[in-house]
Amino acid sequence: MANNQGYRESFCNGKRCVSVASLFSIIFLLLFAESTFFIDWVDHTKTTSACLLKTISIFNNPNPQPQSPLICTNGNSTATCPTYYPSKFEPDDSSTTSCPEYFRWIHEDLKPWESTGITRDMLERGKNISNYRLVIIDGIAYVENYAKSYQTRDMFTTWGILQLLRLYPGKIPDLEIMFQGGDVTVVEKRMFQDISPPPVFHYCGEKNSFDIVFPDWTFWGWAELSIRPWEKTIHNIQEGNKLIKWKDRLPYAFWKGNPTVANIRKDLCKCNVSDQHDWNARIYNIQWQKEKARKFQNTKLEDQCTYRYKIYVEGHAWSVSEKYIIACDSMAMLIEPRYYDFFTRSMVPLKHYWPISAKNMCEEIKFAVDWGNANVEKAEALGKRGSDYMVENLKMKFVYDYMFHLLTQYAKLMRFKPTIPKEAVEICYENMACPINGIIKSLLIESMVNSSSGTPPCTMPPPYKPEALKELLQEKENLIKQVKTRVMSNN
């Protein structure tokens, strides 16, 4: 009989729910998922007629530029945008670094429009599947809303665009883009076999869609779950990694999340420890209403790096949890992802993560844990390589550089002159951050870029040659087959 003491709070136990209380948690969770909630942080800033808010640089800038702080007037209700923003990019250091390998996928994402360019008609055909239109003209951003985004995704994504404009003033070309803020991809290839697809930006993509992948909103914070901006979060996770040596971590595969949003997550619950089986997995359900009441003290990401192995499983589509899971130094197990975000396509199976089949996930999780516990040094090294990938390749400077190169390459394909729609509204630091309070304002301030970059963007790598890309994809497929057939490399 498997020992399941200490895991009675988990959502699933074999094929049955552990307690009646879990049923109520599902009801609360469903109600919660449809609502938008905010946690008020104590704001110790005194409101004055001219309130100068201190800003925090979100990455180390070796060559700091003159700062343009956020200035809120009229009792923090500033609704107009100032004219003192820098308009010219003048770095102190002209030297550049090479962009990470995953930047090459920008060329692939824009390839559908390589021969035709992007026309006004193509853009407008994406309107009915987008949440909003973003326009940039002369370094000023405008937004025209079409449909409400879930929670505050649109706000934090737009805030990220403003940081890019501040980081590289005068360098972002005039453009118009359509943006979809949901989970599931919207530009299906099967719908555009005889006509050019609309260019729609999105947080994820998959092989059967044309969605253009863009960094997700959580790089600037997730207010509803009290998750801080990426640079602070990854720092906290790195500090958390130091608390328990890898060999002293619990020798199981850990997952904690909401299992009700996708069947594959419900299937993962069946791998949890029970009286009949121990698949070496420890699965926990997050009851968000309870966590909200506890001010999310039990869901801090830096406190979830206590297991040797961590599981990533998709939800409605891709999940923002992926980067947090891989950053833990634990050997990350990815359950056959269908979707990808902007940085994961250059990750290599058995180098940065361990692939798990969706069809036989319980057996494969157990095999992976058994292999890791029998090969501790190799498993630890695999986990460290995945974590290093996050730390080295997802620095905020690279996130902004990815945005810069993607938008620049996109603008080169445009075959029309961008214009400001009648219903569009100019957005800036002041009219976004000044009128609000609580955690949203705190996250906006914390993720704020307060000066231009002292160095240029990284150097964009060339596109893949067709044969090289084919070989790359085949190599990844072969490595996944190694796991499926239990044929492990000796390297």
Describe this structure in words.
With 491 residues, this protein is of the alpha/beta class. The protein is built from 14 helices and 15 strands. It has a six-stranded mixed sheet. A five-stranded parallel sheet has the order 11-10-12-13-14. A two-stranded antiparallel sheet has the order 1-2. Helix 8 links the parallel strand 12 (307-312) and strand 13. Helix 4 (153-167) packs across helix 11 (396-413) and helix 9 crosses helix 10 (376-393). The chain starts with 11 loop residues before the first strand and ends in a 7-residue tail after the last helix. Pfam families: Glyco_transf_90. Residues 171-417 form the Glycosyl transferase CAP10 domain. It comes from Crotalaria pallida (Smooth rattlebox). Keywords: Membrane, Transmembrane, Transmembrane helix.
